[in-house]
Amino acid sequence: MPPPNADLATTWAYLEEGVDHIMTKLQTGVSYSKYMSLYTVSYNYCTSSKMHGTGEGGAVGHRTGANLMGSDLYNNLIKYFVNHLKTLRTASDPLQDEALLRYYAQEWDRYTTGANYINRLFTYLNRHWVKRERDEGRKGVYPVYTLALVQWKSNFFLHVQSKHSKLAGAILRLIERQRNGETIDQGLVKKVVDSFVSLGLDESDINKVSYEVYREHLETPFLDATEKYYQQESKAFLSENSVADYLKKAEERLREEEDRVERYMNTNTRKALIQKCEHVLIREHAELMWESFQGLLDYDKDEDLQRMYALLSRIPEGLEPLRKKFEEHVKRAGLAAVAKLVGEGGAAAEVDPKAYVDALLEVHQKNSETVTRSFRGEAGFVASLDKACREFVNRNAATGTSTTKSPELLAKHADALLRKNNKMAEEGDLEGALNKVMILFKYIDDKDVFQSFYTTKLSKRLIHGVSASDEAEASMISKLKEACGFEYTNKLQRMFTDMSLSKDLTDNFKERMQQNHDDMDITFSIMVLGTNFWPLNPPTHDFIIPQDILPTYTRFSQYYQQKHSGRKLTWLWNYSKNELRTNYLNQKYILMTSSWQMAVLLQYNNNDTLSLDELVTATAISKDILKQVLAVLVKAKILINEEADQYDLNPGFKSKKIRINLNMPIKAEQKAESTDVLKNVDEDRKYVIQATIVRIMKARKTMKNQALIQEVIQQISQRFTPKIPDIKKAIDHLLEKEYIERVEGTRDTFAYVA
Amino acid sequence: MAVSAKDARKYLTKYKRLDLAVDAYYNNPPTPAPQASTSKLNALFDKYKDGDDITIDGTIKLCEDLDVNPEDVVLLAVAYELKSPSMGQWSRKGWVDGWKALGVDTIDGMKTTLQKLREQLATDTDYFRHVYNYTFEFSRPPGQRSLGLDMAQGFWQILIPHGLQGGALAHVPSAAQDEDGDDSMDGSGGPEEGWKDDYTQWWSEFLEKNGTKGVSKDVWQMFFEFVRTIDSKFEKYDAEAAWPSTIDDFVEYAKNRVEGNA
């Protein structure tokens, strides 16, 4: 060991031997005392006060004065590293590919381990001389470990790379072999790749990692190679395989690449790599995928659809064409389903509500499942489905151009479900069937039309007592309420209230009558229904109340007046029904009749034969209606019509049934129902549009025509889709009534008239 | 120097810009209306009146003296000037103030003035609009919001041809209303044609066929705008604009008729 004040040559000779030992044969070990003495020598040299100048200066400039010792040692270290790396260079020159990588990795390990020790050996140098040089802003001076890396990079790494990127090329070739399906030594690749990262050096702050070397020498060529590889592969693959197979392939490749980053590339590469792959594997073939989408839909290729969705969702513009195509597809399916149905029944035949609803639901359900299963319920596809359904639910082969047909059929279907003895909803699944009605209801444009038909049908169910259950009725109403709000179902709920009040009323009336009269030979029950809540019209003609029921009629009228003075009762004979017992035949029959039939039949208590005119006089029913009433009775063989306009009681009437229902709706009434409902809807709409305009104008004071129309549409579209000419007519009307006026000097601005 | 609102409007309409109008006013002030005598006008009024106002009989006599047919369009302008409260009726105040503003107090002077009013009604769009709108107001039966169809038809038959022939209703191509107002030519060559005399008759027939009984103020007023702006083939009509729906329907009707005739 040289003395503390030994000169540079002596000192370095001693140190160099130790450094070389550590760098080249560390595996043979270095004793502690040896290490300590090396440390001491380097320390001594750095702290010795006298000058040791070599006189020639070194690679690093030499300063005089009371500077810290160190530049000589530092320069000698550089020289050592350069020499050492020169031998590695020579040894590596003939090596290629994997052999080169192995050599490189092995030397890298040895070198970095050694450099670590050397770094500690020269701790004092690092702490003082190096630090001071760096503090003073000198470039190119590093702590010893960093110095070793810098030397490795410039004297070995760059040298190897300079030969057609021999090192990176070797890595890329290995990766390509792996992509081709071979097994490679991933640990080896990782080691070399890591060295690329370690060689990055941020000049301004050596503690920071710089990916510059990695990026330049490895990442960029890697990405380029990846692009080229997959471009070729996907093109070749698609020329021999189906798109469905390609989807699988692409999915697999993307997973592999994710994995690759994980295994041996730097994580910073992930984003760029995946983007690159998505571009080459997906975007460049998106057109083709979009084209084959329809085929997958047509054959219900759920898994392939799923895959296509997953892949295309990775590029921003990937899904929109699918959503469009899907919308078209659903619409076509819906229209075709209805067209088929209409075709089956012949063009003129009325579509069966249940078949119609089932056909629509089937298309909806099937495609809704596709959305959930294959498109993960993504909002865009849900919107496409909804849009398509709205389209075909409202306009199809069964509706023609009418937007009221669908709500009518749906309401009729709901009516059928809610009636007693319906065979459609299997036991217990009435609730499910009603929920399905609601699915279609959501798509109905003219919700007000549905409301009108539903109200009419409900009133019939209640009046005739054919509702299946109060529970189901209530459930349906609460569903409608949830969908459209309180206002929508207000009337419906009032109808139920009237029904239960009527029951009490009937009971109370009976009780009272039993107390006061003993001649109540008639069973009587009454429904008192609020005019504004029930879609019922009084009879269109007069009616002479038969003597037999007149006392009951009078008593009830009085009773009711007493109870609610001021209320006006309108008797809806046209909705009433009666049961008559026959006494003129051997067998006693019970005839279930309408009021008109009852009035006619009661005439035969005193006559056996009557002319049409006599019957008109006796009942005050108009001739056309009376003829239809009589026709039913004749057909049932209760009456005989042998001479023109002459009706005789049939004394030989016979029937297998004891209870005979004669109360069939007459044709004119049935037909009138639909037109009535629609007429009411039209009237309501006029009113709704006007009220909406007034409300908007009141809030806004002045408004341009276009904006006003848009606002009206927007506010009303929840109930129905108002037509622009109807809105304009409402505006005309309000102008005329001076609720609004045109702003002076403008042609298209309206103002609210307070 | 006080400028009457009427003069101000006259100059502004003519010169469009305020500064030009002011210059013109001072360089070339309006010839002050010759002072008309209130007493002479009162005397004339008394000659025709029947009770407080001049009524139908007086009007007919007046027309005779003025050498004018009681159905002459100019009488609508006179009604506007004299603020006639209703058809064939003239109040003393309207009579005196109106003729004074026009600067005449003799039958001969009135005859000349009628010529001037007839001319102005034919050529001046704004003046035409005022008279046109006033016609609806004063001829409408008291307490009613609309004018009977036959009355309206009668007025249109005298007003519209008069305005067309003199230029007050000259066609305003729809493109010219755009703010940038260029590219109104569509290659068909020549300027776009507008309302034709026949169309007034079509309009009448359409309303009858439609079962229209009364014409609302809005339809009345918008019809004036419609006549000025519609092209002769009814092609540039915008049914989504704020036209009354009666006019929408008429355009449908007229289009069919144009095609049928072509």
From TrEMBL, chain A:
Pfam families: Cullin, Cullin_AB, Cullin_Nedd8
Pathway linked to the protein: Protein modification; protein ubiquitination
Domain Cullin family profile: 405-634
Gene Ontology cellular-component annotations: SCF ubiquitin ligase complex
Keyword terms, alphabetized: Coiled coil, Isopeptide bond, Ubl conjugation, Ubl conjugation pathway
InterPro entries: Cullin, Cullin-like_AB, Cullin_CS, Cullin_homology, Cullin_homology_sf, Cullin_N, Cullin_neddylation_domain, Cullin_repeat-like_dom_sf
GO biological process, any: SCF-dependent proteasomal ubiquitin-dependent protein catabolic process
Family annotation (SUPFAM superfamilies): Cullin homology domain, Cullin repeat-like, Winged helix' DNA-binding domain
GO molecular function, one term: ubiquitin protein ligase binding
Keyword Nucleotide-binding carried by entry: no
Coiled coil: 240-267
PANTHER family: CULLIN
Protein family membership: Belongs to the cullin family.
Protein name: Cullin-1
Organism whose genome encodes this protein: Lentinus tigrinus ALCF2SS1-6
From TrEMBL, chain B:
Record InterPro entries: DCN-prot (IPR014764), DCN1-like_PONY (IPR042460), PONY_dom (IPR005176)
GO BP terms: protein neddylation
Record region (Disordered): 174-194
Function statement: Neddylation of cullins play an essential role in the regulation of SCF-type complexes activity.
Source superkingdom: Eukaryota
One term under GO cellular component: ubiquitin ligase complex
PANTHER family in the record: DCN1-LIKE PROTEIN 3, RP42 RELATED
Protein name per UniProt: Defective in cullin neddylation protein
